[in-house]
Amino acid sequence: MRKISILGATGSIGTQALDVLRKDRENFQLVGVSANSNSEKLLKIVEEFKPSYAVLTEREAYLKFKGYFKNKNRNFKILFGTEGLNIIASLPEIDMTVTSVMGMSGLVPTIKAIEAGKDIALANKETLVVGGKLVTKLAEENNVKLIPVDSEHSAIFQCLRGNKHSDAERLLVTASGGPFRGKSKEELLNVTVQQALKHPSWHMGEKITIDSATLMNKGLEVIEAHWLFDLPYEKIKVVVHPESIVHSMVEYKDGSVIAQLASTDMRLPIQYALNYPKRGKAVVDRLDFYSLKKLTFEKPDMNTFRSLKLAYEAGKIGGTMPAILNCANEEAVQLFLSNKIKFLDISNIVEECMNKFSPKDNFELKDLLYIEIKIKEYVKTKFGK
Ligand code: NDP
Ligand code: MG
């Protein structure tokens, strides 16, 4: 029986992780769950799974949630804020923490979980983007496994199994291309939030959906892959694959390319991470090769989708530059979602921040938290009017 906490249980990944657990009750026990503000959804989760801890990170939602249990007996704890997240991420009774909160809010709780020796099912890619060096070192020191949930990284992780890591020559990270694949800069000038939120193959949270439209998501994934699989950026290539069936590939020194294919359903990489090194019974539809008409591949257009290029640059510069890129992007995406800036402004803002703020080569957690405040404040003040 594996005991787990899910940080961000009410989100897209959290909901699908719960579905995986629902189908495999005898192997998993849910001990801790969190939401930011969606107290109604968290209440349903608590009623169904009966965890020992529930956390809300937004004050009003926390008070509302506590209100549900006024004058009622309850046999679980309700905690508040980042402190609450840190507690459920590192409980002595759990084996694994699923990190499926949004953005940089995942960084500190993931570090706490690693320090407590918990294996991580890592969905929150921003944690590795901003703190890759710190987090991977800490995981090694604490003998903690970082098991990717992101479909591309799960694919690479699976393609590397059974082979010598040093024989891997290139990682081929696939990308759907998002809703604006093939469009020119001019065509992207006036695209709306609604258009950007219409992803052709995946249903995800809003932030990552916008990142998929700008290709920043792929950029963040390149940096994530660099830290997870310890290969230089020159050996990590992005391949656009609109069908989203090949989830990524590894090319070996003899020219063999090993790919992982499956239907477009995040429950598989989630299930794989939760069960690793075992495999569970399929919770997703099986591929039918007779009905799959064709699989296509193309080169990404990094001139139109500049965010991908900027992410490669930030990764190669290293130090705190990926944190600067990530924080500028997180704030810019929020401004786009609230109709304060245009679509193409997102990458312009990221570039401006990368030019304006100097990165530090060596850094600690406090430097990353300072960057988060400073960059987000700068972007909000300058562009959020
Ligand atoms: P969602 O927006 O759907 O869910 C985010 C979760 O985090 C929710 O539970 C939300 O609570 C909570 N949350 C939001 N803001 C905060 C905050 N400031 N502090 C603490 N908790 C917060 O996101 P996704 O599930 O799509 O993505 C989660 C992570 O997984 C991201 O890092 C993303 O990049 C990664 N990922 C997602 C994939 C997907 O298919 N969705 C694929 C690969 C990676 P509430 O519901 O109350 O708002
Ligand atoms: Mg992905």
UniProtKB/TrEMBL annotation:
GO BP of this protein: isopentenyl diphosphate biosynthetic process, methylerythritol 4-phosphate pathway involved in terpenoid biosynthetic process
Binding positions for 1-deoxy-D-xylulose 5-phosphate per the UniProt entry: 125, 151-152, 176, 199, 212, 217-218, 221
1-deoxy-D-xylulose 5-phosphate reductoisomerase C-terminal domain ranges (all copies): 146-229
Residues covered by the DXP reductoisomerase C-terminal domain: 261-377
UniProt EC number: 1.1.1.267
This protein's pathway: Isoprenoid biosynthesis; isopentenyl diphosphate biosynthesis via DXP pathway; isopentenyl diphosphate from 1-deoxy-D-xylulose 5-phosphate: step 1/6
GO function terms (MF aspect): 1-deoxy-D-xylulose-5-phosphate reductoisomerase activity; isomerase activity; manganese ion binding; NADPH binding
Domain 1-deoxy-D-xylulose 5-phosphate reductoisomerase N-terminal: start-end pairs: 4-132
Catalytic activity line of the entry: 2-C-methyl-D-erythritol 4-phosphate + NADP(+) = 1-deoxy-D-xylulose 5-phosphate + NADPH + H(+)
Residues annotated as binding Mn(2+): 150, 152, 221
One family name in Pfam for this protein: DXP_redisom_C
Keywords noted in UniProt: Isomerase, Isoprene biosynthesis, Magnesium, Manganese, Metal-binding, NADP, Oxidoreductase
Entry keyword Oxidoreductase: yes
EC class (word): oxidoreductase
HAMAP family cross-referenced by the UniProt entry: DXP_reductoisom
Functional summary from the UniProt entry: Catalyzes the NADPH-dependent rearrangement and reduction of 1-deoxy-D-xylulose-5-phosphate (DXP) to 2-C-methyl-D-erythritol 4-phosphate (MEP).
PANTHER family (alphabetical): 1-DEOXY-D-XYLULOSE 5-PHOSPHATE REDUCTOISOMERASE (PTHR30525), 1-DEOXY-D-XYLULOSE 5-PHOSPHATE REDUCTOISOMERASE, CHLOROPLASTIC (PTHR30525:SF0)
Family, similarity comment: Belongs to the DXR family.
Name assigned to this protein: 1-deoxy-D-xylulose 5-phosphate reductoisomerase
